[in-house]
């Protein structure tokens, strides 16, 4: 799959595949963009594995900050508030795995 980020499509979250026990999704953040602040943590019941495909950024997970670069693998445990920010000049592309699934087909949080 080739991902292209152009024009208004600077922020994107796309669920890719889902089973009963896990889910994969792709996130693309344009330069300077951040994921929604997770103070309430919209998927508190699910662990999230975040793998950086390309770009650079930072992840605020609980009280710690982690630098993100290609090939970084980060575990965000259940109930950990978090926010991902693109700190680079190019798109930050991540592959995310949630266990159990956290989003519906449209990318909206499961409740």
Distinctive features:
single chain, 111 residues, mainly beta, Jelly Rolls, five-stranded antiparallel β-sheet, 8 strands, globular
Q: Can you describe this structure?
A:
There is one protein chain. With 111 residues, this protein is mostly beta strands. It has one domain (14-99): Sandwich (Jelly Rolls). The chain has no helices and eight strands. It has strands at residues 11-18, 23-29, 47-54, 57-61, 64-68, 73-76, 82-86, 92-99. The strands form two sheets. A five-stranded antiparallel β-sheet has the order 1-2-8-3-6, with no helix packed on it. Strands 5-4-7 form a three-stranded antiparallel β-sheet, with no helix packed on it. A hairpin with a 4-residue loop joins strand 1 (11-18) and strand 2. The chain starts with 10 loop residues before the first strand and ends in a 12-residue tail after the last strand.
């Amino acid at each position: 799959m080739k991902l292209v980020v152009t024009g208004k499509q600077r922020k994107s979250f796309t669920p890719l595949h889902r089973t009963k026990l896990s889910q994969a999704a792709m996130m693309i953040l344009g330069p300077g963009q951040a994921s929604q602040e997770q103070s309430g943590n919209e998927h508190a019941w699910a662990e999230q594995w975040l793998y950086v495909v390309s770009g650079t950024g930072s992840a605020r997970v609980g009280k710690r900050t982690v630098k993100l670069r290609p090939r970084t693998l980060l575990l965000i445990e259940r109930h950990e508030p978090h926010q991902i920010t693109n700190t680079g000049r190019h798109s930050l592309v991540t592959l995310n795995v949630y266990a159990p699934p956290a989003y519906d087909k449209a990318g909206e949080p499961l409740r």
